[in-house]
Every structure is written in C-alpha cells, then in structure tokens.
Amino acid sequence: MHSNRYCNRIIVLPFSVLLEIRVKPDNSGVVTDGVKHSMNPFCEIAVEEAVKLKEKKLIKEVVAVSCGPQQSQETIRTALAMGADRGIHVEVAGKDYETLGPLQVSKIMAALAKKEDAQLIILGKQAIDDDCNQTGQMTAALLDWPQGTFASEVSLDGDKVKVVREIDGGLETIKISTPAVLTADLRLNTPRYATLPNIMKAKKKKIANVKPADLGVDLTSRLEVLKVEEPPQRQAGVKVETVEDLVGKLKETGRI
Amino acid sequence: VSNFRNMFTAAAVDGVLSAFRSICGDDGVSLGETVREQHGKDESVHRCRPPDVVVFPRCVEEVSALAKLCHRHQLPIIPFGTGTGLEGGVGAVKGGVCFSLRNMDQILDLHPEDFDVTVEPGVTRKALNSYLRETGLWFPVDPGADASLCGMAATSASGTNAVRYGTMRENVMNLEVVLADGSVIHTAGRNRRPRKTAAGYNLTNLFVGSEGTLGIITKTTLRLYGVPEEMVSAVCSFSSVQAAVDSTVQILQAGVPIARIEFLDEVMIDACNKFSSLSYPVSPTLFLEFHGSERSLEEQVNTTEDITQSNGGSDFQWARDAETRNRLWKARHDAWYAALAMRPGCKAYATDVCVPLSRLPHIIVETKEDLIESRLTGHIVGHVGDGNFHCLMVMDPSDQDELHRVHLFSQRLARRALAMDGTCTGEHGVGLGKRSLLCEEVGPSVIRVMQSLKDAIDPNNLMNPGKILL
C-alpha cells in the first residue's frame, strides 16, 4: 500500500534582513548595530509553504533553521509562531557572522539535512539585503539533490515534487524527485500573520543550539569585501522654458 | 510669488519665507504651483483651494517653531496628512500655510504587552500593520484609504471593522498636539497610556474629530488588538433591501460579535461585478466577516446563517483563505471606483448618514425611492452594522441641473437621518460641506459651546479656518 505521507520532514531556512541600509563611514560594510531586523520576505513565503504542506497532512514535521548571532532566535520564533514544529539555531557570531555568506550557509544546511534526514529544504529565493540568490542552488549542489528554484507553485505527487518556476520567458513546470531543494518566489503564497495565541504557543516549542564546528563545517570565507559605497547622489533636475531649450539641453549632455 | 493675504509687502512675505526655511531647511518650504495644488485638495468633490505655501517639518520642534511664526504673522495653518479625506478638510479657504506632515514618519514606543503604540503623522495604517506583523498585533480601524493615522484621529475615522473594534474615538489613547501659538500639549499627559482614565476633561476625544481646527496632531497613541486566529468571509444575497437590513439588525441583536457586515444594494453589486470581474447575483447583498478561534467561528456562522435563511437569504458563498478574502474586501473598497466606472467622465460624491439600527430598513428604503424619483445614479453601500450607509452619487460635472438635484437629494437624506435621531455624518466629518447641517443636528446652544471651545483654544481662528463651524 502506497503511503501518501511519504514526506516526513521539511527544513526551512528563514533569514533575517536589515530593515534600513546605511553604509559605514569607513566604507567597510553596512551598519548592523541597533538596526531593526526582520524575517526576509521570501523566507516568510518559504515558511508559509512548509506550514501549508503540513496542514494538508502531506508532511509530518517542519524544522526552522537560522544561522547567526543571538537575535536569529527571534526569526526562528516567528517561524514557530507561523506553524513550524521546532527550531535549530546555528550559532555564528562576531567576525564569522560578518563574513558568513551563501557558501558557508549551504555547507551548514547540507550537514543539517543529512543529520535530520530531511526530504525537502525550502528557502527564500534570495535575501533582500544582499540579493545573492545562491544559497538554495549551492545547497542542492553540495547534497547532489535536484532543485526547484523561483517556485510560484509547489505540489507533492508521491515521491516527486511538481514545481512551477517563474522564469524570464514565462512559467516552467518541472517534476523533480525527493529529497530536493526548493526556493520560494514572490507569488508562491501570501504568508500568514502570526497571531498572539500562536506566538504564545511558539514560546514553548524547542530551539536546539548547534555550532558549525559540531557539524564539521569550516566557515572561512574565500571572499574579501574591499569596499561598500552608496550609489551616486541623485542630481537635481533642470527646468527649461521651451521645447527648443529641452532639445538643446539633451544634445548638450549627449543624450541625443 | 504667492501673496499672503494678510501681509502687505513683498518684503514681509520674503521675511516669513526665509524664516520658514531657517526652520525646516530650503527644501522644506515649497511655493511651487503643483505642490500647492496637491496640498489644496483631497478626494472629495470640493474644488482645489491651494495654500500660499507648503512647509514640510521633520519633527515636533519644527512644527512648534513654524506655528509660532504663523501665529506672530496671523497666517492660517492647515495640517495635511495623506489628502485622502472626503469633506474638503484641507482646502485653504483663506490661503495660508499648509503643514505637510509626511516627513514625520516614525513609529515610536511599541508596547506589545500593553497593546499600544505611538506613531507620527506620516505613518499610514498599512505601514503600521506591516510593521506589526511579527508581534501578532494589528490596528483594525480601516477606512479603506491608506490614510495617515493622525489624520484618521483628526477626522474621527471609522471603517468596515467598526462594528467589532470601534472607531478612532475608542482607539486613541493620547495625542501630542501643537496649538496655534506653537505650544505643545499631550492630551492625556506626556507618555501616559493607561487603558482607562478618569483624570480631568477628556481632551483626547476633544481633539479626535476636530479636523485640524483646534491644533496640529503630531503624535497619536493607539490601542492595538490581537490578530484574529481565524477569519472567514461570506456573501449572502437577498430578494429585498428590507430582508438584508432586517437580517443585520437581528444578527446584532443575537449578540454575534461579527467583525464586518456590509450592505450593497443591487445597483452597487452590479457595478462591483463589472469593475472587479465578479459574478455575484445582482440583488441586495451582505458581505460578512467573522473573526475568532475555529470553534467560535463555527458558532457565529451557524447563528448568522439561521438568521439570514429565516429572512430568505441565499446560501453563503464562502471565502476562507487570505487571497480570496482580500479579493472580496478589495471589491468592496473599490466600490467608489466601480461607481465611477459606470459613467466615465463623471464625478462621485458620497453621503454619510448614520441612524439607530432599528431605523435602518426604513431610511434605506425611503432613500432608494427618492433616488428613483429624482432620476439620480446612486449606489448604496454601507456599514450597516453601525447603522451607517453611503449613497455613492455619480454625476456629470457639466450638468448643472443634475448637480443641483444631487445637492438637494443629499440635504433631504441628511434631514431624513436627523429626523430619525441620527447624524448627517457617521465617519467622513463635517469639513466644508456640512457646516449648516451640523447646526441643524446639534442646535444653537451646542454650536455656542463648540464655538466657545474654539475661541478659547484658537482665539485668532488660525487653525484650518472655515471648517466644522460657520
């Protein structure tokens, strides 16, 4: 008899992003101290999709993982309030956190996926503060799992996953076997607001603490940030009196 | 260069302008025609009355300094939030200085455990609710437009959720107000936010609904609510207006804590169907929404269905998931545009009467008869749970006769509501157009009291002159 509850465990990776970007005075990076963090919008969509699959009784457990300093726990709590069952906080702080990038995170995810025996990993397609769009793809490569990225529709079909992907030319539908990595795009769903009773329940759910070293992951970065600078200041416009003036000015500045 | 009507020399005008610039910076003062026009009108039918200058203060200290300056030179002050009002409240009838508060956009002092938050005038209700997402809290007053919360306080706004969560009057706990002479007060005391108080005159609620005629609101402390565990919406059609409105009255009398109960007549539903690509039966309709735990919803829904069915209502059409529910309520909020779309090139005007619940069936039926007799295009939509409904009139701005008939119709409707112990404005405010009706509604002794309050707080009538009181 074929069980329709093939998928047992999904891991989601909600990341927190800065809500306000200011470049540090020495151009070495962006200011993170005292800036409000919030769950990355695409990660919210990923968590929502995982919780929806669990509500449809297609999977048994949703585990939320976040990598970072203490405040990453808040992001995990939000995922728990949305309906994830338990959390794993991978502690990365200080210098290591400043250089933590998609490659390191995907190594952590790959190690956790094996340890937790997950069938699906769902992430947001990219973080809105760095716009890398690499973690999902790298994780799939490290695990040698198929990937369904930019998903705008996900359905489970036995031991396969049907994914409708948003691509430049339109929509592409693929069928991949599990275990697999999916990344969530904007139109996949509308994430629920956490309700107070669920926030209270989330406080009782477990968050395990893990260090990258325990997972055998080396966090050294192969990238060195040389400089971060703001885009050039927008110049004020110039008003002209007549169309002839306009054409003249456009020619002057080499636009036509 | 614009002319400040009280000032007699160009030098005096220049003096004041450079003083403004020294307070809020060179780009914080605008004389541009387009900017002034933008700040001289709202979403009502009242024509644009641009101010002489628009200033953009960044903090309460700047608002106070600007107000002191205006006071010294006797310049009218018109506060401006998002310009989404419906009664011409921002028109500068005597010229003057528009204080555009959009750069004061901070959300301050959120206390989730106490269910309160303080916001500046540049914060809109959607911005606040987005900020609150992860706390499990929300601010439910929803007038449709993405309005400034301080502006909503100034006009005592309400919305589709008022039947369950109240209006701004019930949900503003404290205000920071800059008076016409520049002094800054906190109506309930600085930083105070107890859930209830018996301390002194209720100044907070004096300023709520004062439409900028008593002071400039620079902060409002709001009461927050827990996001409902579950929400479900439904649509029910009836064969008559009477049946739909009777159902509303009975649902409330049965004690169902219904979150939203909106009535749309067949003319309105037809317009909404066409505008929002829906296919509801074209007959008097109720849009309903229930909030609560899963078990509580079941009980609420069962009681409500019994009532609607006993009034001959159709089966409920359900909307359970967020996307379907949002589409439903967007169709309701788009009613204004849907009405306009029925007669392109026309303008729209909304009436806003509110009567005791038991009089609702009577007034709606009489109003529909009046519409037919007067040969007017009117769509009825409203928060029937509060006894409040809007007649969306669509009229050809070049047809003087039609405009005149609309005007007379609105006066008759307002007087009908007053005769039924109601009010001429449930939520839009008095603004420019309802000042005479206000006199009829409250009577001369009350107008005298209101005028003496105005004279005490703003003796020179600098604060938004020409509004509320004649």
TrEMBL record, chain A:
<dbReference type="GO" id="GO:0009055">
    <property type="term" value="F:electron transfer activity"/>
</dbReference>
<comment type="subunit">
    <text>Heterodimer composed of ETFA and ETFB. Identified in a complex that contains ETFA, ETFB and ETFRF1. Interacts with ACADM.</text>
</comment>
<dbReference type="Pfam" id="PF01012">
    <property type="entry name" value="ETF"/>
</dbReference>
<dbReference type="GO" id="GO:0009063">
    <property type="term" value="P:amino acid catabolic process"/>
</dbReference>
<protein>
    <recommendedName>
        <fullName>Electron transfer flavoprotein subunit beta</fullName>
    </recommendedName>
</protein>
<comment type="function">
    <text>The electron transfer flavoprotein serves as a specific electron acceptor for several dehydrogenases, including five acyl-CoA dehydrogenases, glutaryl-CoA and sarcosine dehydrogenase. It transfers the electrons to the main mitochondrial respiratory chain via ETF-ubiquinone oxidoreductase (ETF dehydrogenase).</text>
</comment>
<comment type="similarity">
    <text>Belongs to the ETF beta-subunit/FixA family.</text>
</comment>
<dbReference type="InterPro" id="IPR014729">
    <property type="entry name" value="Rossmann-like_a/b/a_fold"/>
</dbReference>
<dbReference type="GO" id="GO:0033539">
    <property type="term" value="P:fatty acid beta-oxidation using acyl-CoA dehydrogenase"/>
</dbReference>
<keyword id="KW-0249">Electron transport</keyword>
<dbReference type="InterPro" id="IPR012255">
    <property type="entry name" value="ETF_b"/>
</dbReference>
<keyword id="KW-0813">Transport</keyword>
<dbReference type="GO" id="GO:0045251">
    <property type="term" value="C:electron transfer flavoprotein complex"/>
</dbReference>
<dbReference type="GO" id="GO:0005759">
    <property type="term" value="C:mitochondrial matrix"/>
</dbReference>
<dbReference type="InterPro" id="IPR000049">
    <property type="entry name" value="ET-Flavoprotein_bsu_CS"/>
</dbReference>
<keyword id="KW-0496">Mitochondrion</keyword>
<comment type="subunit">
    <text>Heterodimer of an alpha and a beta subunit.</text>
</comment>
<dbReference type="InterPro" id="IPR014730">
    <property type="entry name" value="ETF_a/b_N"/>
</dbReference>
<feature type="domain" description="Electron transfer flavoprotein alpha/beta-subunit N-terminal">
    <location>
        <begin position="27"/>
        <end position="219"/>
    </location>
</feature>
<dbReference type="InterPro" id="IPR033948">
    <property type="entry name" value="ETF_beta_N"/>
</dbReference>
<comment type="function">
    <text>Heterodimeric electron transfer flavoprotein that accepts electrons from several mitochondrial dehydrogenases, including acyl-CoA dehydrogenases, glutaryl-CoA and sarcosine dehydrogenase. It transfers the electrons to the main mitochondrial respiratory chain via ETF-ubiquinone oxidoreductase. Required for normal mitochondrial fatty acid oxidation and normal amino acid metabolism. ETFB binds an AMP molecule that probably has a purely structural role.</text>
</comment>
Automatic annotation (TrEMBL), chain B:
<keyword id="KW-0285">Flavoprotein</keyword>
<feature type="domain" description="FAD-binding PCMH-type">
    <location>
        <begin position="46"/>
        <end position="227"/>
    </location>
</feature>
<comment type="function">
    <text>Involved in D-lactate, but not L-lactate catabolic process.</text>
</comment>
<keyword id="KW-0560">Oxidoreductase</keyword>
<dbReference type="InterPro" id="IPR036318">
    <property type="entry name" value="FAD-bd_PCMH-like_sf"/>
</dbReference>
<protein>
    <recommendedName>
        <fullName>Probable D-lactate dehydrogenase, mitochondrial</fullName>
        <ecNumber>1.1.2.4</ecNumber>
    </recommendedName>
</protein>
<keyword id="KW-0496">Mitochondrion</keyword>
<dbReference type="InterPro" id="IPR006094">
    <property type="entry name" value="Oxid_FAD_bind_N"/>
</dbReference>
<dbReference type="GO" id="GO:0004458">
    <property type="term" value="F:D-lactate dehydrogenase (cytochrome) activity"/>
</dbReference>
<comment type="subunit">
    <text>Interacts with CSRP3.</text>
</comment>
<dbReference type="InterPro" id="IPR016164">
    <property type="entry name" value="FAD-linked_Oxase-like_C"/>
</dbReference>
<dbReference type="InterPro" id="IPR016166">
    <property type="entry name" value="FAD-bd_PCMH"/>
</dbReference>
<dbReference type="InterPro" id="IPR004113">
    <property type="entry name" value="FAD-bd_oxidored_4_C"/>
</dbReference>
<dbReference type="InterPro" id="IPR016169">
    <property type="entry name" value="FAD-bd_PCMH_sub2"/>
</dbReference>
<dbReference type="GO" id="GO:0071949">
    <property type="term" value="F:FAD binding"/>
</dbReference>
<dbReference type="InterPro" id="IPR016171">
    <property type="entry name" value="Vanillyl_alc_oxidase_C-sub2"/>
</dbReference>
<dbReference type="GO" id="GO:0008720">
    <property type="term" value="F:D-lactate dehydrogenase (NAD+) activity"/>
</dbReference>
<comment type="similarity">
    <text>Belongs to the FAD-binding oxidoreductase/transferase type 4 family.</text>
</comment>
<keyword id="KW-0809">Transit peptide</keyword>
<dbReference type="Pfam" id="PF02913">
    <property type="entry name" value="FAD-oxidase_C"/>
</dbReference>
<dbReference type="GO" id="GO:0005739">
    <property type="term" value="C:mitochondrion"/>
</dbReference>
<dbReference type="GO" id="GO:1903457">
    <property type="term" value="P:lactate catabolic process"/>
</dbReference>
